[in-house]
Amino acid sequence: MDKGDRHMGQFPATSILLIDGSKNHREYWTDQLTRCSPDLRILEASDGQSGLALFRAQRIDCVVMDLALPDTPGFEVLAELVPTPSKPTVAVLVLTLLVHRTVWELATAYGAYACFHKKHTRGEDLEKAIHQAVAFVGQMPKEERAHQSRGPKLGAFPDIQTCEERV
To answer: How many domains does the chain have?
Structure first.
Protein backbone atom coordinates (compact mmCIF):
# COMPACT_ATOMS: atom_id res chain seq x y z
CA MET A 1 0.00 0.00 0.00
CA ASP A 2 1.45 3.37 -1.02
CA LYS A 3 1.11 5.95 1.75
CA GLY A 4 2.47 9.03 0.10
CA ASP A 5 3.14 10.35 -3.38
CA ARG A 6 3.37 13.86 -2.00
CA HIS A 7 6.75 15.12 -3.03
CA MET A 8 6.81 18.70 -4.28
CA GLY A 9 9.78 19.53 -6.47
CA GLN A 10 11.71 17.93 -9.23
CA PHE A 11 13.44 15.25 -7.17
CA PRO A 12 11.50 12.10 -6.36
CA ALA A 13 10.56 11.63 -2.73
CA THR A 14 12.60 9.21 -0.66
CA SER A 15 10.81 5.89 -0.94
CA ILE A 16 10.55 3.70 2.14
CA LEU A 17 9.43 0.08 2.26
CA LEU A 18 8.15 -0.85 5.72
CA ILE A 19 8.03 -4.63 6.25
CA ASP A 20 6.31 -5.65 9.46
CA GLY A 21 3.88 -8.44 10.29
CA SER A 22 1.88 -6.23 12.66
CA LYS A 23 -0.70 -3.98 11.04
CA ASN A 24 -0.72 -1.78 14.15
CA HIS A 25 3.06 -1.36 14.01
CA ARG A 26 3.00 -0.56 10.28
CA GLU A 27 0.31 2.06 10.80
CA TYR A 28 2.11 3.56 13.81
CA TRP A 29 5.50 3.86 12.06
CA THR A 30 3.95 5.14 8.84
CA ASP A 31 2.20 7.83 10.88
CA GLN A 32 5.37 8.69 12.81
CA LEU A 33 7.48 8.97 9.67
CA THR A 34 4.83 10.98 7.82
CA ARG A 35 4.65 13.44 10.71
CA CYS A 36 8.43 13.88 10.69
CA SER A 37 8.85 14.03 6.95
CA PRO A 38 5.62 14.40 4.96
CA ASP A 39 7.45 14.04 1.65
CA LEU A 40 8.43 10.40 2.29
CA ARG A 41 6.80 7.87 -0.02
CA ILE A 42 5.97 4.91 2.23
CA LEU A 43 4.99 1.47 0.98
CA GLU A 44 3.94 -1.25 3.40
CA ALA A 45 4.29 -5.04 3.35
CA SER A 46 2.83 -7.41 5.91
CA ASP A 47 5.34 -10.22 5.37
CA GLY A 48 8.73 -11.00 3.90
CA GLN A 49 7.61 -12.36 0.53
CA SER A 50 5.29 -9.45 -0.26
CA GLY A 51 8.04 -7.10 0.92
CA LEU A 52 10.54 -8.67 -1.46
CA ALA A 53 8.00 -8.50 -4.30
CA LEU A 54 7.42 -4.80 -3.66
CA PHE A 55 11.16 -4.21 -3.42
CA ARG A 56 11.69 -5.82 -6.83
CA ALA A 57 8.76 -3.94 -8.42
CA GLN A 58 9.32 -0.42 -7.04
CA ARG A 59 12.14 2.10 -6.66
CA ILE A 60 12.99 1.76 -2.96
CA ASP A 61 15.60 3.94 -1.23
CA CYS A 62 15.35 2.40 2.24
CA VAL A 63 13.79 -0.70 3.74
CA VAL A 64 12.70 -0.56 7.38
CA MET A 65 12.00 -4.10 8.51
CA ASP A 66 11.22 -6.25 11.49
CA LEU A 67 13.15 -9.47 11.86
CA ALA A 68 10.12 -11.37 13.24
CA LEU A 69 8.06 -11.84 10.08
CA PRO A 70 5.10 -14.21 9.76
CA ASP A 71 6.21 -16.10 6.63
CA THR A 72 9.97 -15.85 6.16
CA PRO A 73 12.86 -15.49 8.62
CA GLY A 74 13.90 -11.84 8.75
CA PHE A 75 17.55 -12.72 8.17
CA GLU A 76 16.58 -14.50 4.95
CA VAL A 77 14.78 -11.36 3.75
CA LEU A 78 17.75 -9.23 4.81
CA ALA A 79 20.12 -11.48 2.84
CA GLU A 80 17.91 -11.09 -0.25
CA LEU A 81 17.86 -7.31 0.13
CA VAL A 82 21.61 -7.01 0.77
CA PRO A 83 23.38 -9.92 -0.92
CA THR A 84 26.77 -8.31 -0.27
CA PRO A 85 26.74 -6.70 3.18
CA SER A 86 29.96 -4.76 2.69
CA LYS A 87 28.53 -3.02 -0.40
CA PRO A 88 24.77 -2.50 0.05
CA THR A 89 22.72 -1.29 -2.91
CA VAL A 90 19.80 -0.30 -0.69
CA ALA A 91 19.69 1.11 2.83
CA VAL A 92 18.14 -1.29 5.35
CA LEU A 93 17.21 -0.48 8.93
CA VAL A 94 16.01 -3.12 11.37
CA LEU A 95 13.19 -2.00 13.66
CA THR A 96 12.29 -4.79 16.03
CA LEU A 97 11.17 -5.84 19.49
CA LEU A 98 14.14 -8.23 19.70
CA VAL A 99 16.72 -6.83 22.11
CA HIS A 100 19.52 -9.38 22.10
CA ARG A 101 22.88 -7.85 21.22
CA THR A 102 23.85 -10.92 19.18
CA VAL A 103 20.76 -10.54 16.99
CA TRP A 104 21.62 -6.88 16.35
CA GLU A 105 25.25 -7.71 15.56
CA LEU A 106 24.09 -10.40 13.15
CA ALA A 107 21.69 -7.96 11.47
CA THR A 108 24.50 -5.47 10.83
CA ALA A 109 26.73 -8.33 9.67
CA TYR A 110 24.00 -9.24 7.18
CA GLY A 111 23.91 -5.69 5.85
CA ALA A 112 21.57 -3.62 8.01
CA TYR A 113 22.80 -0.04 8.43
CA ALA A 114 21.52 0.09 12.02
CA CYS A 115 19.07 -1.63 14.38
CA PHE A 116 16.44 -0.01 16.57
CA HIS A 117 14.16 -1.28 19.30
CA LYS A 118 10.53 -0.36 18.60
CA LYS A 119 9.68 0.56 22.18
CA HIS A 120 12.63 2.92 22.59
CA THR A 121 12.73 4.63 19.19
CA ARG A 122 11.08 7.91 18.31
CA GLY A 123 9.85 8.75 14.85
CA GLU A 124 12.47 11.50 14.63
CA ASP A 125 15.25 9.01 15.38
CA LEU A 126 14.05 6.62 12.68
CA GLU A 127 13.58 9.42 10.14
CA LYS A 128 17.11 10.71 10.78
CA ALA A 129 18.55 7.20 10.42
CA ILE A 130 16.67 6.70 7.14
CA HIS A 131 18.22 9.81 5.63
CA GLN A 132 21.69 8.91 6.93
CA ALA A 133 21.44 5.34 5.64
CA VAL A 134 20.22 6.47 2.21
CA ALA A 135 23.05 9.02 2.03
CA PHE A 136 25.59 6.37 3.06
CA VAL A 137 24.49 3.93 0.35
CA GLY A 138 24.28 6.75 -2.20
CA GLN A 139 27.87 7.80 -1.53
CA MET A 140 29.22 4.44 -2.67
CA PRO A 141 30.36 4.43 -6.30
CA LYS A 142 27.99 2.38 -8.44
CA GLU A 143 30.81 0.14 -9.63
CA GLU A 144 31.51 -0.75 -5.99
CA ARG A 145 27.83 -1.59 -5.46
CA ALA A 146 28.02 -4.27 -8.16
CA HIS A 147 30.25 -7.34 -8.44
CA GLN A 148 31.07 -7.76 -4.76
CA SER A 149 31.88 -10.73 -2.60
CA ARG A 150 29.88 -11.48 0.53
CA GLY A 151 31.51 -10.29 3.72
CA PRO A 152 30.30 -9.08 7.10
CA LYS A 153 29.77 -5.43 7.90
CA LEU A 154 30.01 -5.27 11.67
CA GLY A 155 29.31 -2.43 14.04
CA ALA A 156 27.05 0.56 14.21
CA PHE A 157 27.71 3.96 12.75
CA PRO A 158 28.72 6.60 15.33
CA ASP A 159 26.11 9.21 14.40
CA ILE A 160 23.23 6.74 14.84
CA GLN A 161 22.18 6.20 18.42
CA THR A 162 20.43 2.87 18.72
CA CYS A 163 18.28 1.72 21.59
CA GLU A 164 21.16 -0.43 22.77
CA GLU A 165 23.25 2.69 23.39
CA ARG A 166 20.44 4.38 25.31
CA VAL A 167 19.76 1.50 27.71
So the answer is: 1
